[in-house]
Amino acid sequence: MGRIFEVRKATMFARWDKMAKQFTRIGKEIIIAVKAGGPDPSTNAALRRCFQNAKAVNMPKDRVEAAIKRSQGKDMENYEEILYEGYGPHGVAILVETATDNHVRTVANVKSIFNKGGGTLGNSGSVSFQFKKMGVFKLKPEGLNAEDMELELIDYGLEELGEGTGENGEDVLVVRCGFTDFGNMQKALEDKGLTPISAEVEWIPQNTVELNEEQAQDVLKLVDKIEQDEDVQKVFHNLA
Q1: Cα separation of 31 and 235, whole Å?
Q2: Crossing angle between the packed helical segments 45-56 and 182-191, to the nearest 10 degrees
Q3: Residue 210 burial (C-beta neighbours within 10 Å; 0-12, 13-18, 19+)
Q4: With a threshold of 0.70, does the pTM exceed it?
Q5: pLDDT (tens place) for every residue of the chain, 240 residues total
Q6: SS3 sequence, the chain?
Q7: CA 209/CA 59 separation, integer angstroms
């Protein structure tokens, strides 16, 4: 087992702003999950994933409950999930996942941020072929035997298992599976009594771009600006 490859993260905006953004993102995910599968986490795997991720970022219980209530209210928000694709400075490929109740506003904002940051918003399919959509589970490594886990999880769609880094720089064990095996892997971990620190669907770059530090900062500044938009859920890129 080796160290799993992770792309460079943009961490430029303030900690409290980042925390608020995470709460908003997970709140939208809860609303989408409840709308698709109902409010009972025992029968809604997507909602269980949201609860795990809420716990990972210390999202207050009242915020979680408020999101569930909003999803069932008479004036329920109707979020549409849209993926935008483009290139940042120096040829770096960027994918932008959004959840929006106004796609006209969202595409205008995303396009403006790309243009101002030296990038270009592309058409559907122009960038995504350079990435692989995967389920990514992060586990606390204490008490786990990685070699045994690798053998046990291979039948549930395991593609990669290795060491990685959590949100706060702590060591984690990273489990990756194909997107279509996400549910199988989630259930396999639950059956083993393992609660992931986080369980996400991510776009993993198949090839990365090496840049010098100054060029890399150009890209990370653009990524940071995109991440701060209210309709943006996650941003993925292939900067090494």
Answers
A1: 20
A2: 70
A3: exposed
A4: yes
A5: 778 988 888 765 666 678 889 999 999 999 999 999 999 999 999 999 999 999 989 999 999 999 999 988 876 778 999 999 999 999 999 999 999 999 999 999 999 999 999 999 999 999 999 999 999 999 999 999 999 999 999 999 999 999 999 887 899 999 999 999 999 999 999 999 999 999 999 999 999 999 999 999 999 999 999 999 999 999 999 999
A6: CCECCCCCCCCCCCHHHHHHHHHHHHHHHHHHHHHHHCCCCCCCHHHHHHHHHHHHCCCCHHHHHHHHHHHHCCCCCCCEEEEEEEECHHHCEEEEEEEECCHHHHHHHHHHHHHHCCCEECCCCCCHHHEEEEEEEEECCCCCCHHHHHHHHHHHCEEEEEEEECCCCCEEEEEEEEHHHHHHHHHHHHHCCCCCCEEEEEEEECCCECCCHHHHHHHHHHHHHHHCCCCEEEEEECEC
A7: 34
